[in-house]
Amino acid sequence: MDDALAKIRPHTSSSLPHQKTPATLLVALESTFSEQKTEPSPTAYFAALLTTLDGTIQKKDLSFGDGDVLPAELYLLALVAPFVSPQVVRAQLNTLLSLTAPLFPFLAQHAPALRSQLSLYHSIFQALDKSQLDTQGIRQTFASILNICIDPRPKVRRKAADVVKDVLANPPAPLARHPYAERTADWVKTALSEINAGPLAKGKAGKQAAAPGAEAAIHVLAFLRPILPYLPPSSLPSITNLLLLLPRLGNPYLSQSAYTILSELFALPAEDASNSVAEQLSDVLKVVLSSLPSKTDVTLAPAWVQVLGDAMLAYSVVNPDACSTELAKVWKAVWNFLDANDAGVRKATARSLDVISRCFSLALVANATADSEGTSTIRKIIAQVSNALDSLAYARSIPELLSIISSLITSLRFRNGSRTSPTATETLLLPLIQHVGELRTSKGFEYKEAVDVTLAAAMRVVGPEVLLKILPLNLEPESRQAGGEPRAFLLPLLTQPHSSPLGHFVSYFVPLSERMFDLQQKAETEGRQSEAKVWSVLVGQVWAGLVGYCNATVDLKEALSPAFSQLLSQLLYSQPDLRPPILKSLKLMVDSNVALTTAADESSAETLSPQEAADNVAFLRSQTESWLAVLFNVFGSVGRDSRNMVGDVISSWASIAGEAEINKAYIKVVQLFKTNLMSNASAPAGANEGSMTATSQDILLLLLPYLSSTDATSLFQICLTPEVLSGKDNGVQKRGYKILTKLLESGKVNVDAEAVLRKLDELLEGLTPAAKKDRFNLLSLLIPLLPSNAMHVIPSLIPEAVLGTKEPSEKARGAAFDAIIAMGRKMSGGGVVKRSMMDGMDEDDAGEDAAANIEEFMTMVAGGLAGASPHMISATVTAISRLVFEFKDQISVKMHTEIFTTLLVFLSSANREIVKSILGFIKLATHTLPADLIRPYLKDLVPALLNWSHDHKNHFKLKVRHIFERMLRRFSWEEVYSCAGEEEASKVLINIKKRKDRAKRKKVSRAEEGEDDDDQPSAKPAAGDAFEDVLYGSESELDDSDDDGPTAQPQNVSKRKNIEHGARLRIDDDEPMDLLQGASSRITNASSNRRRKPGQDAAHFKTEEDTGKMIIDSGSDSDNEAAAPSVEIDVAGSAYKESMTSVDGFTRGPNGRIKFNKDTKKRRRENEEVDGDIEMADVEAAAGKKKPKRKSDVKLGQEFKAKKAGGDVKKGGVDPYAYLSLSQAAKKGGRGNKIGIAGKR
Questions:
Q1: What span, in angstroms and rounded, lies between the C-alpha atoms of 1131 and 1071?
Q2: Could you say which DSSP state residue 1075 is in?
Q3: Are residues 99 and 53 in contact, defined by beta-carbon separation less than 8 angstroms?
Q4: Which has the closest alpha carbon to 187: 244, 227, 153?
Q5: CB 778 within 8 A of CB 738
Q6: For a disulfide at 774, which of 566, 737, 782, 1232, Cβ 3.0-4.6 Å?
Q7: CA–CA distance, 77 with 124 (Å, rounded to integer)
Q8: pLDDT by residue (tens digit) across 618-664?
Q9: Rounded to an integer, what is the distance from CA 1237 to the centroid of its chain?
Q10: Apex CA 402: angle with CA 398 and CA 403, to 5°?
Q11: Within 10 A of 577 (CB to CB), how many other CB atoms are there?
């Protein structure tokens, strides 16, 4: 609310009455609040505005002009009402109704005030309970708002519709549907009935005038569409009948809206079968089918076919048998639009046919599979699609036809019986799929991507075992010699899940890959590297298809035999290119079966049952020991970049392994780790012996979630040793800390936090920078585990964590901050700090034990301010800033004051690192701490900040300026300026105030001119951490310079129109064309002819018959003749060009300032060339239509010609040639004789 009111207050000086009056009223109310010492809460504003409104109405001042008070009061009421508590609104309901409800008749002619009234009632309706909704005044008001929903003014109409929608969408508890839903449905039915009762459209077809009620009907439908889900189901049948009558009014947009709403209505869930529209669907289909639109009606046709599809889908759910009887008729009606000229109509038709294909019932599919004569509905549809694929009438509809075929393949995936029986797709669609596959290999066929989508659907449903029988790959030389067309494009489709068993891959693709690998080896031996690369790619694509076979395969126990497992392990070791697909397959093999074991519902015949999946998991569990050993070896042999993939597979297999298998694997890996750790410790410095140690640690991290408590405890003790945590290998040390952290997070280890922290403190000297982040993470987990009587350990950890806040690594800094916060929370939780047990404390100096609290911890951290190095002092200031932000509510005012005064002293330091941290703290304090705490120290703070206001290093000037801007938001200008002191320094504050006032004036002027703020720069996005946002996230709201920057010029981006080019027939002079069969392979798009094709530039040149070399002339007669008439054009139109480019010319900047061109050698040389090229005699000759005088032609490469050069030296002599791109040399035009060797003109 404060933000909304802050935008109104500046308008008190506005020249627009409708802006000035609300601002003046608001300022008056707030001055009354200050006089009466009333807190300006939403309730206070609400009560004051109601009182003011009552007084205005009592005076009978019911004028609604721009500068009148009553519209301003309604505007402010609508603004404040959403922030008032519902209890207050309910208590004042009678007052609100008595004051505002009688205003509706007067507001009818005043749209702004009416919108404010609607916004006010939007908030009122949201606050009411069920009993108050039955109030007579509320019901009458809702009826008035319903009538406004068809107001001719768009903004008023939209506001009323939004109010009704939000009221219906938020019923009072505990109701599921709003009490006004029935009333709204009755109003809609009444409005539609009145419209349908009006006169129909007049005139002949194509020239008819729309019915008078069409516009009102459009408004009603726009209102009905968003509220449709909230209406009672009992009202939907009658609304459906009324919607079906609207197309007769003759308005295409109205008909389209009616059909769209019908589509959405059919998609609604039927809550009550007796009240749903299911019983009307048959009548709906008849009515819609009887109002057939034209194919050329791009507005109505898409909505018409869509409503038919959605109606059929709803019909198939309610009554599948009745839907089956209507399917052929509806399919035929929609199919007729597939050959429409408009692409949008064709796409909508394809989507509708896709929906209709989902209505195939099991009985309809069974009838089609048993039908051998082709008389069933589905077989007729398939025959129709097959004929259309080669028909010239559907030439432009090939993509839509392929989409329909994909839908048919998916819709006929049912199996008649067990899992081994063929699908209906396999029985009915194999010839059509084969035809599509042959199109893919046809010469000149342009829709190969769409064919790939269709074949991918076939691969998913029937599987490669069936598909490759009708479309063999033909990749081997023997198949191609026999005339088979290679179909390597099928290999990438194998990766998706399908129904073929894994045994098919073992029996078909494994031998195929072995034969292709032999061909690859043979080609490499004979030096045919290109051919070898082709075979290598094909082998890789074959093994990439293994993933599709491993998704819950039915024959896992038989297919994953020892021989196949051995082959997979050998490939993992020896073939790095095949490693990713095999690893992915091994992971999917486990994950897919585990997912099915937890499936809630029983699977259909398409997939495994939970029991079968559980049997597969048990089979895989029996092989985990051997597979984990293989994967461990592979993990150690691959590079660091590839280990994530291997690690994921290890985690999947470890998740199903038994405890005994995990224990065996753990023992082996730990033994390997210990062995390599000892050899690493005894190795000389610089030897790279730690890589295997780090690898074993990575494997332990993968096994860690599945270890038992005993193994986890032993691993914790192994890693908590100097050999690991103080070793000279960065990687080993870092992973050691990471393992300790993960073990603590798992909760499987019970540790003595005090002893562990003591041990870690002893190992601090050998810490490497790479391990700091993980060490801080470990400390953050250990500190909360400390007992309340062991707080004396914390002071020894403070210096390390404080210095960690200055680490170069952002993650390490964040972990250090987390450790400091963890210490603070532990200390604030209570306990005792035994000073006698603190490190470095003598018993005589220790004194009494201290109570653990946040202030004691702040005192400990503040000890770093006495550090010997500026780095330590700066880090301490940063740590204190973080603690102040986190625990500001727990720290006393006295401690806040001590911290602020202590750090204020460092603002005068000469060290920039310290001052940078202090500025961050002051920025935080200005934002976070109470204003009364900072106010007494302004006289010291402001001059100290002004001393740095002219320092540009480290952005100090901007930082100080932004601190002052924040300060001026919390303190008055007089308070801050009075502390500035000397005149020179106070100029900075005056400048900031001027810039701020200027920004406000610009904002007000933009608001008065009605400009949107969309083009204003948006605020910097938050960093996700509140402390970071306060300290670094916000920048100055003012510009960095006093002068306005250059106005951004609008970029005139030329947009090419999306012109739809129709389909064309490709002419082939070599062979005749059969327009009745195979026309789809002859179709081309007009737009595709404009693509740049290989060799098209070379076609512009002549070639020598003997050598085949292209002959590139330096200039042709046609070029020279084309260049001749350009002289007159150049001279006649050179005035503007000369003013822009010559020495005497000038340009204008964005502010209108003139900038003269510089007198440079390059510009003078260009002017001389122009003067030399064009003479007055030439102009006169051109004007007299005589041939102008021209200089001698400039030959190619003339500007690079040397006086004594004879060409490039080659083995056979000198090569007098120069080289440029063919596209440049092939260009024709008037300036062809001036092209240079580098394409320069």
A1: 55
A2: S
A3: yes
A4: 227
A5: no
A6: 737
A7: 11
A8: 999 999 999 999 999 999 888 888 889 999 999 999 999 988 999 99
A9: 47
A10: 115
A11: 12
Task: Provide mean pLDDT across the span 66-81.
Answer: 80
Structure token digits, residue 2: 């404060």
Residue 1191 DSSP class: P
Element (H, E) at 305: helix 300-318
284 closest CA partner among 265, 257, 256: 265
Tokens of 1096: 């098209």
DSSP-assigned beta bridge partners for residue 1102: 1111
Q: How far apart are CA 466 and CA 464, in angstroms?
A: 5
What H or E segment, with its residue span, contains residue 1065?
A: strand 1063-1065
Own/partner long-range contacts of 183-187 (Cβ < 8 Å, ≥24 apart):
183/139, 183/142, 183/143, 183/146, 184/146, 184/227, 184/231, 185/231, 185/232, 185/235, 185/239, 186/235, 187/143, 187/146
pLDDT average, residue stretch 1158-1172:
65
Lookup result for tokens 């750090």: 903
Q: Are 754 and 733 in contact (CB under 8 A)?
A: no
Structure tokens at 793: 């350990």
The string of pLDDT tens digits covering residues 444-453 is 888 889 999 9
Closest CA to 322 of 380, 352, 278, 290: 278
Sign, CA torsion 86/92/93/98: negative
Measure the CA–CA gap between 1166 and 1159, rounded to whole angstroms: 12
Q: What is d(CA 948, CA 945) in angstroms, rounded to the nearest whole number?
A: 6
Share of the chain above pLDDT 70, in %: 76
End-to-end CA distance of the chain, in Å?
Answer: 65
170-201 tens-digit pLDDT: 888 777 888 888 888 888 888 888 887 766 55
Tell me the sheet residues that pair with 1011: none
Residue by residue, what is the 3-state secondary structure of 840-897? CCCHHHHCCCEECCHHHHHHHHHHHHHCCCHHHHHHHHHHHHHHHHHCCCCCCHHHHH
Give 1182's contacts (C-beta < 8 A, 6+ positions apart).
1125, 1127, 1128, 1131, 1188
Instruction: Give 704-730 pLDDT, tens digit per residue.
Output: 999 999 999 999 999 888 888 888 888
pLDDT: is 1176 or 873 the higher one?
A: 873
Give the residues across from 204 on adjacent strands.
none
3-state secondary structure of 1133: coil
The residues that bridge with 1063 in the sheet, in sequence order, are: 1085
Q: Which residue has the tokens 């910097």?
A: 1020
Report the amino acid identity of residue 520: Q
Are the beta carbons of 949 and 910 closer than 8 angstroms? no
- Amino acid found at 680: N
Query: Which range has the worst mean pLDDT, 133-147, 383-397, 1005-1019, 1115-1129?
Result: 1115-1129
The residue assigned the tokens 């670094």 is 1032
For residue range 497-508, what is the model confidence (pLDDT) as tens digits?
988 899 999 999
Cα-based torsion angle of the residue sequence 756, 758, 759, 761 in order, rounded to the nearest 10 degrees: 120
Provide the token pair at 912: 């920039």
708, amino acid identity:
S
Q: What single-letter amino acid sits at 14?
A: S
Q: With helix as H, strand as E and coil as C, how does 77-144 read?
A: HHHHHHHCCHHHHHHCHHHHHHHHHHHHHHHCCCHHHHHHHHHHHHHHHHHCCCCHHHCHHHHHHHHH
Burial of 1132 (0-12, 13-18, 19+ CB in 10 A): exposed
Lowest mean pLDDT among 376-380, 950-954, 1229-1233: 1229-1233
Quote the Cα angle for 413-345-244, to 5°.
90
Map out the domains of the chain as residue ranges.
657-680+689-750, 893-1007
CA 227, 231, 237, 239 dihedral sign is negative
